[in-house]
Amino acid sequence: MKIKKILGVILTSVMMVSMIAGCGSSPEAESSSGQGDEKVTLKVLAGQSTTDAGIEDMIDEALAKKYPNIKLEWECVGWGGDFQAKMQQYMQTGMPDIIIGKAQDVGAYAPQGIFKEIDSTYTDRLLDAASDNVTIDGKTYGLVYNALYQGVYYNKDMFKENGWEVPKTQDDLNKIIEDCKAKGIVPFASHMADTWSIGNVTMQFAMNDIFNKNPNWGDQFRKGEVSFTNSTEMQDVYKYNKLIYDNTFDDTFSLEQTECDARMVDGQAAMKVSGSWSIQNFLDIDEDFNMGIFPFPNKTGDSKLIFEPNITIMTSAETKYQDAVNNVLDILTSDKDLAVEIYDFTKTAPMLKDVTPTFKNPSQVDIDKYAEENMIVDVTLGNNQLVWNGFQEENAKDISAWLLGDETFEDALAASDSRVERSGDSN
């Protein structure tokens, strides 16, 4: 991915896991055809990130204006929770007309023939970066609508007041941690009650300590050439979780994201390893919160900021209503007012051409800097090498058990090794 060139376009304006248990919009009528003005109900499975709940209402409203004959029947679940199970269920019973997940879902499911190629009419309205990880054998199976960034969010005012420079190495980071503790400041905000958060930050660590240097580590793992138990790099990745656990709130394992983010804004912690989904909370609490972002420092001091394609629309290869499905894709890729509304609400970066969100993002200056320095990497690489469903999410549970003292470190590593057959296959 030519990330510097591409992201220069995405990022020069404004930039800008997983829960949510239901969403609205009930259908009014259903037809056996998607042609003409006949009323059609399309079923939508939406695996949502924490930023996304509510965008379904925005889409419904825009769709009703241009295509009033089309209604969407939404089933919204957390992408990091029930989405994969729902996918397995529907693969047995028949897929919904539209599936909304993440870019990595294309690599996991498209080879099984359940998605239809997205017409170039709609993909041509997206930035080049949108097709990089959703194209297989020259065919694009996902429409990537927005993007997130992941790294360490930090309180810029607190850093300035204490004379802290953005850390590039583990030594740099540890100096800030020690100074925080000496001054009675909690170094890291974290909400380890959310296992998905542990899984997410673990992949962040793995991207910069492992995959940026060895992009085929997962393939080697499946061949038996490397393992979690014998890899000092992977052991370091797991131990970074302990570094955060030892330097965060005492109640992190009973703390949820909203309260954690509120404490960060309130000045109770200096940093948070997170992603753009936290921006929504930060700015809802205090629209003037002065935050920045930097990559979590790796052992070699060359970490990159992480870029993640997020909302990705896929369509069923077996839908009976292809014309209606295409009309939904048309709305999503042509209605720029809708796009700005969604980007401003989710506080995410656009993947549509010529669309600029209007929300204020203090961390944008940092993102632009890393983009200019070619220091941004697409996390889809790591997520394709070690899949979330059945592997990363299960590893996170063992990391949690280790931190709580219910497993040994060696047990957590061995448990990851025992799941090797699931590491590259979402099934």
From TrEMBL:
Top-level division of the source organism's lineage: Bacteria
Keyword Membrane: yes
A matching Pfam family: SBP_bac_8
InterPro entries associated with the record: Bact_solute-bd_prot1, SBP
Matches recorded under PROSITE patterns: PROKAR_LIPOPROTEIN
Keywords: Cell membrane, Lipoprotein, Membrane, Palmitate, Signal
Signal peptide: 1-21
Protein name, per record: Sugar ABC transporter sugar-binding protein
Source species of the chain: Clostridium carnis
